[in-house]
Amino acid sequence: AGHQAVWGSFWDPASKRWGYACCKALRRDEPCTAPPPPTAAGPSVPVVDEDSGVEVTSPDTEDEAESKPWDFRDPPPELLPCEAVGRGQPAPYVAHFALWALGAWRREQERGFQGFGEIERMAFQGALGECEKAIAPLLWRLKKGESLDRGEQRETKRSRETRTSMEGKFVQEKSVLKQLHFMATCALEREYVKAHEAYMHLTFGNKMWNLTHVAHVAACTMKGAREYRRNRDSLNTYDMDPISQKYMHAFKKLVHFSQCLRPSSDQSKNFVM
Q1: With CB atoms 3.0 to 4.6 Å apart as the test, which of 9, 31, 165, 269 could cross-link to 264 if both were Cys?
Q2: 101-117, pLDDT tens digit by residue?
Q3: 271 touches 192 (CB < 8 A)
């Protein structure tokens, strides 16, 4: 009794008998004489000498998880030009614009949105917390240097039809980071219509068919109906990732808030909300 292995896990060629692999016992009723296995311990922590120069830190996934709230305190006081933030790189400037807009939103909310129209006040009143929650995963991904592209790739898009004319096309998605950066720079230059056009490309992309279309046409006599199918084109990040959907909506809202604070003197460049 108390064996750590099952009967028949060991074969003794000398006596030509089966036994237990744990203690090599050949009798079925013989108690186990093998030492007990070591107790399971938690994950080992490396012991590092103080003068070794090796720093033991927790993994980034613990500190920078997407579900972890972002600290929105101390936002940028003003919107800087692109070349003044992160050496002109897209990721730092997208984060800079988002943090600046959220900070300005909080300040205007404390002032009661003075100077805002009734429709604009209703659009932004009480929505700051939800917008911050949606933007936080974007800021974590930018900080960790992750790619924002989550759409279908050519190697992951399976053909569902034997006739290629019925299969949807693979449409290469534009870079999500570049589109967000273009929206931020357009907001800086007060080109809000162009920023909205970039948002449309970000969400809808260049797909010709967003949904599968099926048509049934009457065939020859006694042959029933014939089905013509046109499957959807490849899905982009907006279609595939719900988290990306939320931060894209929130980023568009920040661009609209920027327009309320810094409208263009040329009305043709302002987007009508």
Answers
A1: 269
A2: 999 999 999 999 988 88
A3: yes
